[in-house]
Structures
1.
Amino acid sequence: MTASELGFVGQAVLCVAWFCFAIVLLRNAVNVVQLAVAAWVFLTRVRPTPRLIDLWDRYSDIALPVSVIAPAFNEELSIVDSVRALLALEYPEHEVIVVNDGSEDRTLATLHEHFALEPVERTQIAHLQKTRILGVYRSRTHANLLVIDKENGRKADAANAGIGFARTPLVCVIDADSIIETDGLLRASEPFMFDDGSLVAVGGAIRIVNGCEIKGGSLRKIGVSRAWLPRFQVVEYLRAFLTARVANAHMNTLMLISGAFGVFRRSVLVEIGGYRHDTVGEDLELIVRIHRFMRENKRHYTIDFVPEIVCWTEAPTTWGGLRNQRARWQQGALETLIEHRRMIGNPRYGRIGVFAMPKIILEDVVGPPVELLGYLVIPAAWFFGVLDPLSAAAYFCITILFGTALSIGTLALEEAQLRRTPTAGDLMRIAVAAIVENVGYRQANLLFRWIGIKRHFRRQTAWSPVPRVGFGN
Amino acid sequence: MLSREFIEISVLFAVAMAIALGALILRRWRDELRADARAAKARLVTKAYLQRVGGAHEDIASKIVDPAMRLTAVSHLLALLRGAERAKLIALAEADGLLRRPLANIGSWLVARRVAAVRVLHQFATPTCLSTLRRAMATDQSLTVRVDAALALADLGRLPPPRATTAMLNIGQRGTTRLDIALFRALAIDHGPELRAMLAERIPHALRAVIIEALGWSNDISVVPLLERAAGFDHAEIRAAALRAAARIGHPAVAKWIIPMLEDPAAIVRIQAVNSCAVLGLRSAVPDLRARLEDPVLWVRLRAQEALEQLAPPQDASARTG
C-alpha cells in the first residue's frame, strides 16, 4: 500500500510500527555489543587467583578490614544461620553488623538467644539513617558481631545505619537472606590490592539459589530449580551479570551493583550520604550518584565487577512476587533517571552521561513499553494490511528469536568461562528455559515493567512484598 | 527489503549461538561420561609421581601423556610435600617436560596466559623458573605480569633488590598499592641497608613512606633512630609510616617519641600514634590518650577510646566518652 492509500491512521500505525522496530533493533545492537565485549573480556582477562589458599597466602597480611552490613527485617527463621555463615566467611579481619530494621517478629530476640548479645556503647561515625537507633549490642561469644536495633525505615535506611557504625575502610552491603560464598569477601577485596586508592566499589554476580541445597546458611550443592519461573530468572541473571555487567565494567560504565552484594569504600559512601531513602531502586541510585559525585568533583575513580564473586539469592517463585519485584525495579530506574536527569547526554559526565545514562533509558524506560506496544501494533498493522507480512515476521524474529539467541549466547559464555552449572543435564534445562522464556515470560516482564511505570507516575512508593519460600535445610 | 535481512541475521545469530551452546553441552556431557575414567587416570598419575618420589624407577602412568593432567597432579602434590621429596618431585616434573608449556607461555601475546604461566612457575621455582620470573618482572610490557612475577619472587624470597624492584614496577611514579607495601615488607629483612640508602636519595614522598613502613618489618632495631628522624619529617604520611613501623618493631625506645606525636597537627598522624600506643601497650601514654578523648577529630577520639579500653582498667568509666 502507498502512503496516500493508507490514510492518516494507517500512516500513523505504520510509523508506530517502524518506531517499535527501530527501538528493538537498537536494544539488540546494544546487547550484541555487550555480549561481544563480555566474550572478549573473558577471553583476555587475567583470571583472579584461583585457589582460596593462594588468595589467603597473598593477601591475608594486607587485606583491608571489612564490615559486612546485613539489614534484616522479619528474618527470625533464617537469621541465625545467615549470621553464622557471615561470621564464617574466609577473611583475615571482618566485622558483621546486623541491622534489625524494626522487625515485627522475634528476629532480635533470636539474635539475643543465639549470640549472647549485651548492650554496648558504640559511637556512630556518621548519622546517615532517618530513623531512631533503639539499641546497639555486641556479642559476648563472637567479638566481631555487632547488632543494631532501629525503628523500621526500609532497607536503604537500615544499610545507612550500618554504614554509620562501620569503622573499617571497606563495607560490604548485603541482603540478610543472601548467601555469600566463603571466599566472596577475599575475592571482592582482591581488586583493592592492586588499587592506588581510586577503586570505590566492587560488585559480584548474583545467582539464583532456588534448587540449590542449603544447610546452615551455607551453600552445599548447586542445583537448578525444576520450576520454570526460577529457571527463567537464572537465564535473566546470567544475561545481566555475565554480559551486561562485565561489558559495562570493562568500559567503565558500570551503573549498578546489586543490593544483594557490593563492596564499597566506606569513606565514599559517607561522603555522598549513603543510600537514598525515598527511592525503591536504592542500589541503582547509589551507583549513579557515586558516578555523579566523583565526576562533579573531578576525582579519578573506578568501579569494578568480578564475576567470580558469587552471592546466591532467592528468586520469586510466583508470578505475583515477580511482578512486584520487576515493577519495583522499573520504578527505581525511573526515579533514578529523573533524580539525575542532568547527567543524561551531558558530556560533563563523560561516558556515563553520554552513553551509560541514555543506555539505561533505552533498555529500561523506552525499550520495554515500546517492545510491548510492538507486539500489539505489528500484528494489527499486518492484519489491516498496513504492514507487509515479511516485516511483521521480522519484528518477531528480532524480538523473540534474537532474544533467544542472546540468552543462549550468554549461557554458552557461562559454560565456556565459568562452568558453574553443575551438570550437562542442568545446562540443557537452562538452555530450554532460555528458549521458552522468550515466549511468554519475556512479554510478561515487559508488562510488569509497564506496571512499574504506572506505579511511578501514580507515586505509589509502598514496598510491594516478594514472597519468599526460604532456604530449606 | 531490510526485513528479509533482519530475519536472516536473527536466524543466523540464533543458529550460531545454538551451535556454540550445543557443542559446549556435548563437551560437558562427554566430560561427565568420562569423569570416572578421568578421575582414575588422575589418581594413577598422582600415585605414579608419589612412587617415583619414593624411589621407584618405573612410571606406572607412562601411557598417560596429558601434560595438563600431570601438571595438575604435581601441583596438588607440591602443596603437600616438603624438603627433599618436594625437590625430587620438581625435578621429575621438569624431566617430564611439564614446564615446557608454561615457559613458552611467558612469551604469549595474551597477558592472561603470561600471568597463568607466572603462577605455574611460581609453584615450581626451579632455577629456570626463577630466571624466567626475573626476566618477566624486568621486561614484560604489562605491569600486571610484572607485579605478578614480583609477588611470586617475593614469596620465594628472590625479589630483586629494592632499587631494581622500584624501577621495574614503576613504584613512586604511579599510585602506591597495597601490593607495593607487601613487596617492600618482603624486601626489608634482606635489603635493609639498601632501603636505608634509598631514603638518603631524592624520592617521592609516597615511596619514602612505603620504605619507612617496610623497615618496621626488617627485624632490625638499629632502624629505630632512623624512624625517629622520619617521625619529624614535614610530610604527614611519612610521619604516620614511621609510627606504623615503630609499632611493628616494638622496641621500648620508640615510646619517648611516639607519645609526643599524640599532639601532632595532622589527624592521620595522631590516629596512628594512638594505634601505635595501643599496639605497644604503652600504659605511660594513658594520660595523653585521655587528652585525645577531647580531640576535635572524631576518628582520633574513637581510636583513643579503643586504646584506653585496652590499656586502662575497664572499671575506669570516666574514660568512656565520645
2.
Amino acid sequence: MAKDARTQVEWIRFSPLDRLLHLVVMIGFTGLAVTGLSLGLSSTAPARFFIWLVGGASHAGWLHRFFAVITYACVVIHGLFFLYYRLVLGQKFVGPNSVVPTFKDLKDFRLNMAYFLGRRRSPPDFDKFTYMEKIDYWAIFIGMNTMGATGLILWFPEFFTRFVPGFFVNIAQVLHFFEAVLAVVVKFFIHIGMVHFRPAVYPADMSIFSGRTSQEKIMQEHPGQWRFIAESRDSAGKR
Amino acid sequence: MERKSGRPRSRRWLRLLIGPLLGVLVLLSPGLTTMAGAESRPPAGAGASSWLVNMNRFAESAHSAFNCEDCHGTMVEGGKKHPDPDSPDYLVKPASRRFDYRRCRKCHQLAYDRYTEGGHAKALAEEAQTTVQTGESEKAGEVKKTVATGKATGPAPTCGECHVSHYARSKLSRVAVGTSMVTVCGRCHADHAASYMENIHGRVGVDLKDEKSAFCSDCHGAHRVIALKQTDVALTVCRRCHPKAQSEFTNVVIHASVTVPPEARSAKDKSTLWIQRVRIAAMAVLVISLVFFFGHSLLWLLREMHEKLRKR
C-alpha cells in the first residue's frame, strides 16, 4: 500500500522551459549532425546520398546554419534563465545543489570507482548532481561554445580574417570537426543508450517530454535530488 | 504485453507497406546510384597521350571530325619516311615530348598564348635549358625535379601532358572537368591534389559535385598557371568568389598537408605545421575523452548488472 502511494505520486522533474529547450536542442542537434557530417565526411556514400536528397551542398550548408542558430538560441536562453535564477530568484550558483564542481566530486569519483570495482558495497552519497552529471553539463557547455565560435569563424571567414591570421580558419575547421565527432559519438551511443536501452526505462525515458517522474524513480535513481526536494519541502513546512 | 484479442496478428499492414516502400526506393534510386554508388574520388595519375590511338574512343572525342593529317602532317616530311625505324628517336621518346604543339595554336590560339605566359611554359623552357647544358637526351622525358622543395615531379608539361587530344570530349560539365583536374594535375602535383581533396573546396566540388566550388584551374589558371605565392595575386583570385576578402584571407591554407622541408619553409608553411599539430592534439583529446566516457559507462553498467543479478 505504501509502495503504491510512492509510485503513484508524480513529481515534476523538468519544467516546461526544460522540456521545450530539450525538444528544440534534440531536433537542432540531430539536424546539425546529419548536415555537418555529410559535409565533413563527404567522400562516404551516405553523405553523398544525403547531399543529393537535400538538393546540393549549398542547401546542406544552409540547413546546417539554420539548425546552428536554433540550437545556439537554446544555449542563450539557458544562459538567460540562469541569470534570472541567480539575480531575480536569488538562488545560489555554488554549493551542494549546484552544477559547479567541488572537491567532494573528486572524493565521490574515487569512492564510485571503488564501488564499480567491487571494493565497496554501495555508491557514495551523491548530492543533487553526481560528478558524472557535472562532467556532462560542462562538457556540453564547452562543446557548444567551441562549436559556436569555430562555426562562426567558418561561416564568416572574410570577416574574421580581418582580425585574426588566416590559418585560424583552418584551426577552427579542425576543432569544429573533432568536437563534432566527440559530441555526436557521445550523444548517439551514451545518451541514447541511457534514455532508451537502460532496463529501467526501456523503451524510452519519457520524463524529459512529460516532465514527470514517479517518486520511487526519483528516490532510487536520483537520491541527491530527492534529498534536495525533501529538504526544501521541510524548510517550506518550517516557514 | 497482451494483445487485445485472441486472433493471430494480421500481416495485412505489412503487405500494404510494400507498395509505398518500393515507391520510395524508386524515388531514391537516382541518388543511390549516381551519387552514393558512384566512385567518389578520382583515381590518381591517369594516363597521358600515347603512341597508340583507340579509334573507337577517337570517334567520340572533340577532334573526331579531323583527319590525322590535319594535325600530324603527311607521312613523308623532310624527305624521311615515317615512321623511321633507323632514327635514334624511334619509339624512345613519349608522344607528348615529340609532337610539335605549336600546331594546336591553329585553333586554340588563346589557350596557347596563355600557356606561354604561365609557370608550365617557364618550366618547359628551364628544362630545355638544363637538357642543353647537361647534354642529357630527353630519354623517356624523365627529368626529375626533387620532391624536397614541394614542387612537381615529372617532366615540364606540354599541351600533351594535360590534354589527350585524341580522346578529350567536349561539352563536359564544369564539375566533370574540375573532377578530371584532380587526376590530371595530380599526376605531378600529388600532394596538392590530396590536400585539395581534404579541403572544403575539394569536398564540395568533387565529392559533392557542386559547381559553385573552386577547382584547380579556378585559382591557378588552366593555361596561364601560377603558384599564387604573392598576396596581391592570390587576393584577386580569392575575390572571384569571396568578394569581401581582405589580404589576410589569402593566408587561409588550402593545401594544408603539403610538407616542405625546414630550409624551404615560408611563413605560410609554418602556419600549416601548426594546423597539423592542432589536429594531432584534437585527436588525442578525442580519444582520451571517448575512452573516459565509454569506460566509465561500461564499468557502471557492469556494476549495475552485478547488483541486479547477484541481488546483493
3.
Amino acid sequence: MSGTHGDQVDIACRELVEIVTDYLEGALDPAMTATVERHLAVCPHCERYIEQMRETISALGHVPVDTLSEQAKADLVAAFRDFHATDT
Amino acid sequence: MTEEPGLLATERSPGRGVVGEHETELVDRLRAGDADAFAQLVEDWTPSMLRLARTYVSTQASAEEIVQESWLAVIRGLGRFEGRSSLRTWAFRILTNQAKTRGVRESRTVPWSSVVAGERRPTVDPDRFRGPNDRWPGGWTVEGRPTAWQPTPESSAIAGEIRGRLTAALAELPERQRIVVSLRDVHGLSSDEVCEALGITAVNQRVLLHRGRAGLRASLEDYYRDAGTGVMA
C-alpha cells in the first residue's frame, strides 16, 4: 500500500520489488532506505522476496567458471620465472 | 616470512581484491620473483579476466589469448607499478586495453549506453499485485506472493541442480545483463570494478544487475514450483 502515515511514506510491494537491487547496493537515500525497512518489517512476502534475491546472489557465487588450461597457466608461471631469472 | 594461507583470495572471493598491507606485501613478493605468489594470482584472477575479455571479443579462444597476453604484460610491467591504484585495478586495465584493441579489430561492440526496448518494464509480473482500487493497492495477491524455497538453494541436496539451473538461466539472459551479473555475482567484482572495466555508470550497472538478478531469481522460482508439483523427477 502506498501513502503516508503522518510524515512517513509507505511503499507498495509492487514498487519495492523494483528497487530491491538499489536497496541491496546501498544506493537508496536514507529516507527511502528507512521506508523499505519499515515495509519489510511488516510484509513477510517482500521480506521473502528479498531473501530469495539474496539466496540467488549467493548461489551465483558457486556457478562454475571457465579458466585457462593447466598448461597455459604453467606456461605463464614459467614466463614469470624466466623474466626474474635474468635479474640476478 | 610466515605463510598466510588467506593472503591471496581463494575460491569464490577472487573478486575481493587484495588491498592494503597485504597488497604491499604481495607486490613485494612478486617483484622479488616469488613464482608461487604469481601462480596463485593467475589462479585467482584468470576466471574474471576471461569473463571480462570475452565481453570484447567474439570467441573464447580470442579471450584466452588476450588473458595470456595480459598476464605477460603484467609480468613485464610489475617493475613499473607504482601502487597509485590497486594491483588488481592496474592488471584489469591492462586487460581491458588489450581486449578493446582486439575487439575493435574483430568489430565487436556491446551497446552499453543504449536502452533496450522493454528495459523499463517491471521485473515482476504486475498480475502478482493488487490493482489500484484494491483495499491494499500494489500489495502481493494471494496467488502471486513468493512461496518458500525448501530446501534452500545452499542445501547440499540440491546445490548441484541449482548450479545447473543458474548456469542455464545465465546463458539465456540478454547479453548485457549476463555480463554484469556474471562479473558482479559469479566472479565477485565490485561495483566500481565493473563500472570501470565496462565503462558504464553505476546507475546503468544497477539497472542491468537488477534485471538480470530478477530474471535469475524467477528461474529458481520456476525450479522450486516445478519441484513442488512433482514435474521434476
